[in-house]
Amino acid sequence: MRKKFLPVLGLLFFFVAKSFCFSANGGFYIAKAQKEKTGDFSTYNIEENSVKNGQSSVNAAQIEEEPVLTGMKKAFAGEPLFIEDFFDENEELPLGALVLFAYQRAYNQKQMQVFFRNGDWCIELDGKTFAWAEGRLLPLEKIEQAENYGLQKIYPYTGEPRNPELYTKEEIAELKKLGTKAAIAQEKPVDNTFTALLLGGQNRGIMEKHIAKTSIFNQCVNVNQLIVQLAEKIDEEVQQLAETDPAIKTFINKIYQIGGYNWRTIDGTAGRRSYHCYGVALDITEGNNQKVTYWEWERVWNENWMLVKQSRLWSPPVEVIKVFEKYGFIWGGTWDEYDTMHFEYRPELIELNRLMSGLY
């Protein structure tokens, strides 16, 4: 399965929530999910868990309450929704709904509202409404031109590394097309309106008002104010690990530079905006590194760049990667289009994986 560039419409993931229980003190626990894969579809069957919250627990069906609107009834009524509205329902939520709920949970300080309107799942951010639009996440005024836009790069981030040994001949052929003039010519522009509003700015001048300096791994870097405290926490935890782990200490000492904010597009694309534009991505480069780091650099001389084994790629220590993931960052070393120096703040992708796995 391609992790970074798999079109969201090619995934039909569903989330099924069958039951939850209340405790005597008013708390509740979520049923535990097991994933079953069949062909190109995945469903998530919820199995009841007997964990208690508080002194005792009883089944929700035994509690007499006044009728309330269930999740789907609220959805069709156009009311604001939360994923919790569906915990007690035998309902199937499409990927679009789960993605929007993932954004809502990952950026709870934004107080985004999710709702169902005119046959599509929508999310409201800072007073502006966006529709899922079959994976395009467009402002309402662009819905009629939806076919002119490409799909957002959204997937459930598991943290599992790529495995080129599992690629099919068809997947290898598709990967070889990436970055070519023919592929770029066919690529549709991805609308950045939602991401820009979420992270601070649609243009360079506005964005740079949200950029601040911080220090991580003894390097000064410009980042979005949104991640300054997160970067400081990551630095603190990794520096503590380095005190007892020689490999991590060596990793820090060998860092040549760390790139942060940089208003630019992504190499090998038709102008798709990099998350460095928003100051939420970090590129950690090591001095005198002889290992493979970035697919686009490798592609220049090696047409089979996608078959390079994971063990041949440069990589930060696993413990360092885990600390980044703990604070909402994903690692580019998990992508088929590998970029092992790259960390990116994408808590919605981690949250999406949690929702689709029942880990909440």
Polypeptide structure, described:
The protein is an alpha+beta fold. The chain has 2 domains: 8-154, no CATH class; 164-354, Muramoyl-pentapeptide Carboxypeptidase, domain 2. The protein is 26% helix and 21% strand. The protein is built from 11 helices and 18 strands. It has helices spanning 71-76, 95-106, 169-177, 181-186, 193-199, 204-207, 228-242, 246-253, 295-299, 318-326, 347-357; strands at residues 12-13, 15-16, 20-23, 28-30, 32-38, 41-47, 57-59, 92-93, 113-117, 120-125, 128-131, 138-139, 211-216, 219-224, 255-259, 281-286, 329-331, 342-345. The chain has a 4-stranded antiparallel sheet with strand order 9-10-11-12. A 4-stranded antiparallel sheet has the order 15-16-18-17. Strands 1-6-5 form a 3-stranded mixed sheet, with no helix packed on it. A hairpin with a 2-residue loop joins β9 and β10. The two termini are 24 Å apart. Residues 1-67 have low confidence and may be disordered.
Name a few traits of the molecule.
single chain; 360 residues; alpha+beta; Muramoyl-pentapeptide Carboxypeptidase, domain 2; 2 domains; 4-stranded antiparallel β-sheet; 11 helices; 26% helix
Q: What value does the Rg take, in angstroms?
A: 22 Å
| Overall morphology | globular
CATH architecture of the largest domain: 2-Layer Sandwich
**CATH domain fold name of the largest domain:** Muramoyl-pentapeptide Carboxypeptidase, domain 2
Mean pLDDT: 82
Helical/strand content category: alpha+beta
Describe the largest sheet. 4 strands, antiparallel
CATH class of the largest domain: Alpha Beta
For the biggest β-sheet, the strand order reads 9-10-11-12
Number of domains: 2
How many β-strands, per DSSP? 18
Order of helices and strands: EEEEEEEHEHEEEEHHHHEEHHEEHHEEH
Distance linking N and C termini:
24 Å
The tally of helices reads 11
Q: What fraction, in percent, of the residue positions are helical?
A: 25-40%
Segments where pLDDT lies below 50 for 5+ residues? 1-67
Strand content: 15-25%
